[in-house]
Amino acid sequence: MPGAADQEPIDTGPAEAQERFLVPAIFGPWAQEVVDRAALAANEQVLDLACGTGPAARLAAKRVAGRVVGLDIDAASLAVAASQADAEGAAVEWVEGSALDLPFADEEFDAVLCCQALQFFPDRARALGEMRRVLKPAGRLVASVWRTIDHCAGHFAVARAMAEQAGAAPATLPPFSLGDAEELRSLAAEAGFADIAIEAVAKVARFGSADGFVEALAAGAPSTRHALAKFDDDARQSIMRRVATLLAPYRDGDGLGIPMESHILKARA
Description:
Helices cover about 40% and strands about 25% of the residues. With about 270 residues, the protein is of the alpha/beta class. It has a single domain (about 5-269), classed as Vaccinia Virus protein VP39 (Rossmann fold). Strands 1, 2, 3, 4, 5, 6, 7 and 8 form an 8-stranded mixed sheet that branches. Helix 7 (about 210-220) packs across helix 8 (about 220-230).
């Protein structure tokens, strides 16, 4: 089944492109995983930290009657999140702010969710400390963090193709910079979390074609967009062809089924 990115040009802003093309195939399933594992109760107070366009916050709002807050530093992402929540009838409070200095009181939330974001924070230890600060006693953190890039076949193919084009070794893209489970565990422990559990979880991202996958990343994923922008048109076309070759083993009757893996972190304050 062709994906949306294969059916129409991607001419939206990055936040809109992420919601339209990357949330359905990539970020939405991980948001669902995180919300499911949080086992939210009806009257709980929930924070979706670095919420992006808000897929986890919207899911949480459909499960609880309590307060759901989505916080992100990017106003454009929050605007898309609010628009989508309004369309879905999801009651979420959207707050612009930094994960390193949360604008909330101590012990305000029962659960903090963080989907594919911890690795991007400039001070991960401080961010985790802030998460613990705003959690109630025994409140829980559930976060998804990409494993190393070799566990995410699509991104690995793009990184490898770009490196071959540049005549260099594949670089570690920022989304995969916290792929080591022991580093993640150590950070959570140092922040004071208890009952820390980390599990590797696999999913499949579906796209209509390799070109559609790369175009979606280029439109909605900043690290890939910036990396591809360094190449001229001919080089980018060469990269696209190489990615198609590398992802050929994942083709089936419905397009591409690309394996991807994350660590799911669960811990208590």
